[in-house]
Amino acid sequence: MPYVIRGANREVAQVRDDPSNGAMEYLEPESPEIRHFIDRSLRQEELRKNLASTDAGMIRVIDDVIEILLKKGVIGPSDLPEFVMAKVRSRQQARGLLREMPLVPDDDVI
After folding, report:
1. Residues 2-12: b if buried by 16+ CB within 10 A, e if exposed
2. How far apart are CA 70 and CA 87, in angstroms?
3. What DSSP character marks residue 66?
4. DSSP code, position 73
5. Do the beta carbons of residue 95 and residue 109 sit within 8 Å?
């Protein structure tokens, strides 16, 4: 271990425990290329987690933008695919119901 598969740019793209499925080149575990691969993989995972942690907030932003564009007449319901409008209506209805509940402050409605 480790056996590597290189990508089109000749950088290490995958690391395997044994020589299989195209991973025939052996590199020392301490090699700079393996370290670079691990660092890059950790950074990618960090970026994925960051994106995932902001998804809910971005969904709310997109909901608000769509609602503003619809209210101002910049776009109409027929400008969006029906499945999108169905989701928009469903989320608007859910937020409306949550606003009617006395235990949920308005700014906490998702």
Report:
1. bbbeeeeeeeb
2. 14
3. H
4. T
5. yes
Give per-residue pLDDT as tens, 6-51.
Answer: 988 999 998 998 888 788 899 999 999 999 999 999 999 999 999 9
The token duo for 21 is 């499925």
Residue 106 banded pLDDT, cuts 50, 70, 90:
low
Q: How far is residue 82's CA from residue 95's CA, in Å, rounded to a whole number?
A: 20
Neighbours of 86 (CB within 10 A): 11
Task: Write down the domain spans for the chain.
Answer: 1-53
Q: What are phi and psi of 3, to 5 degrees?
A: -105, 145
DSSP β-bridge partners for residue 92: none
For the record, the structure tokens of 2 come out as: 């480790």
Residue with tokens 């006395």: 102
- Residue whose entry in the numeric block shows the structure tokens 């949550």: 98
